[in-house]
Amino acid sequence: MMSSSALSAPTVTRTLRVPEITAYFWIIKGLSTALGESASDYMVRALSPVIAVALGFLAFVAALIVQFSMRRYAAPAYWTAVVMVGIFGTMAADVLHVGFGVPYFASATLYAVVLAAVFVIWQRTEKTLSIHAIDSWRREGFYWAAVVATFALGTAVGDLTAVTLNLGYLVSIALYAGLIMVPAAGFRWLNWNPILSFWAAYVLTRPLGASPADWLGKPTDAGGVGVGSGWISLVLAMAIVGAVSYLTTTGVDRPGRRELRPTSRTR
């Protein structure tokens, strides 16, 4: 018979491996969603779509393996995983539409149901959806499942408004910039639930970040500027590397840093 320690091994409490939520978090999250969109577009055009999806999946799995191997939060490992989730999540959403002809409304509904299911199971299992409680392998597994679902949902919703509803990329940028202010204002001034506010904003960063990437990268006959997804991907990747290097050097998003300041507001 297995010992009690062996049975509890998958959920042994560990140091937090996710960052403190700061302005840097939202900036890099937005950059990563834009990179996910542009890099996915570039890869499926530069390579065979099947090969591109396979490479995206392998990179996604490899990044998560590295992230789960960390004993504590490390900015390069964490944000590499987020970027790879962004690229693969975009591909997963696009495959349903391009490969199987599923309308964006249907795929958005599907991913919304998947995300809701992840949250329900996570809440019933762990009794919290807080990012500040990601202190075990199992909780981190739920966290990354939710992150993948938010990227796929955000991709489908962004394409739904820009393409299916024919709003275009510029109007979509304005739309999601306005929508993301709702949970931000609700949390800041109306005492909204911080967990609900966080995840609502997290979902909205996906179409908000992807819309500028599409607008700049898509050809002019598709409603874009025509810069090219390859160049957009390169610039975004350089910006992310610079930002993550800053976080690695300064540690300003290290978990628990705020608790060390007596004057900080408890969330």
TrEMBL record:
Keyword Transmembrane appears in the UniProt entry: yes
Transmembrane segments: 46-66, 78-98, 104-122, 142-161, 167-185, 192-209, 229-248
Keywords from the named record: Membrane, Transmembrane, Transmembrane helix
Protein's UniProt name: Putative membrane-anchored protein
